[in-house]
Amino acid sequence: MIWLGIESSCDETACAILRDDPLEILSNPLYSQIQEHALYGGVVPEVAARAHLEKITTICQEAISEAKISLSDIDAIAFTRGPGLMGPLLVGASFARGLARDLGIPAYGINHLEGHLSAAWLTEPDLEPPYLTLTVSGGHTELVLEEPGFRYTLLGRTRDDAAGEAFDKSGILIGLKYPAGAAIGKLAAGKNRKFHHFPRALQSEDNGEFSFSGLKTAVRRYVESNTPEFIQENLGDIAASLEDAIVDSLVAKTIWALKKTGMKTLIVGGGVSANHLLRERLGKYCESHGIRLAFPTLYNSTDNGAMIAAAAIRRARVGMLPETSTEVKPWLPLAL
Ligand code: ATP
Ligand code: MG
Ligand code: FE
């Protein structure tokens, strides 16, 4: 069976061709709109919707030719129905539905977060729930228990900013461009993580909740109380201290949730799961506690089409595909 996965919830226009049985990613190209939004320091919904509209056909054609298949080989389409930006979601959904109608095949609306959590499964397809999941992306930071049958129980989420937002907003304050997550990771490599102590919120609280808005304020104060030259000269050490604070918060609450649930498998997904320090710190803890830890490939950590098709394939295998008539939904939590 050949699947076309389409992702358009935010600022990546992504299409992928996957084969199931045996599972294989045949292609997974994307167009990132980063340049278009960097000017504004964040994603502008209208600009994003227009860029999706301009690129989606090209990226889809690229996915098909790279996979060395033809359009008529596609058996089913999976697209992101939410959460995300309304305009961008509608572009992907309309394209998916139109193409599905033309080809006489079904188009299934998939939850973007379920997609992020299915990305690790592409590398380790023997993963089976129950397991603990950590979603760390541009818009979400949450710990969710996943049980067989796509049953999700929320253990805790952020009260304000997401981890990716914390990276991006702090990065802009220290003079980096949006999105700053990957840049902070690069600048921080081999630098002094103890250079400045940035706050870690809610650490003493017995829950799985996160908060990053205080960190943002602390970074702003820090930047204001130092000269631009000082910030520039010590950028690596500041980035390392920042990364240390964010990763520390994520790891502490993940350990809390592992203890709380007694789960022996942890799956991480979302853009921030590309972060090397997070991989290293969670890796150390899980290794010493006999916990299986699964991350997506670096490419599949951020938004891509393969993760959307992956979620659909996981569902198809247990007969739990959604109705083809589902509407797009900007707000679509995995668990309340
Ligand atoms: P959501 O999935 O919540 O709807 P999104 O789709 O916009 O949000 P993703 O594409 O999953 O988010 O992730 C983008 C985020 O990941 C950005 O905030 C970016 O800074 C961050 N990010 C990407 N690479 C890294 C990295 N190496 N280290 C830290 N953060 C990173
Ligand atoms: Mg993005
Ligand atoms: Fe995402």
TrEMBL record:
Cofactor notes: Binds 1 Fe(2+) ion per subunit.
Main location: cytoplasm
EC code(s) of this entry: 2.3.1.234
Cofactor(s) this protein requires: Fe(2+)
Stored PROSITE patterns: GLYCOPROTEASE (PS01016)
Gene3D superfamilies, sorted: 3.30.420.40
A Pfam family it matches: TsaD
Keyword Repeat: no
InterPro entries reported for this sequence: ATPase_NBD (IPR043129), Gcp-like_dom (IPR000905), KAE1/TsaD (IPR017861), Peptidase_M22_CS (IPR017860), TsaD (IPR022450)
Annotated binding of substrate, by residue: 135-139, 168, 181, 275
Domain of life of the native organism: Bacteria
Keyword annotations of the record: Acyltransferase, Cytoplasm, Iron, Metal-binding, Transferase, tRNA processing
Compartments in which it is found: Cytoplasm
Segments forming domain Gcp-like: 24-309
Residues annotated as binding Fe cation: 112, 116, 303
Catalytic activity: L-threonylcarbamoyladenylate + adenosine(37) in tRNA = N(6)-L-threonylcarbamoyladenosine(37) in tRNA + AMP + H(+)
Job description of the protein: Required for the formation of a threonylcarbamoyl group on adenosine at position 37 (t(6)A37) in tRNAs that read codons beginning with adenine. Is involved in the transfer of the threonylcarbamoyl moiety of threonylcarbamoyl-AMP (TC-AMP) to the N6 group of A37, together with TsaE and TsaB. TsaD likely plays a direct catalytic role in this reaction.
Family (UniProt): Belongs to the KAE1 / TsaD family.
PANTHER family listed in its UniProt record: TRNA N6-ADENOSINE THREONYLCARBAMOYLTRANSFERASE (PTHR11735), TRNA N6-ADENOSINE THREONYLCARBAMOYLTRANSFERASE, MITOCHONDRIAL (PTHR11735:SF6)
Name under which the protein is recorded: tRNA N6-adenosine threonylcarbamoyltransferase
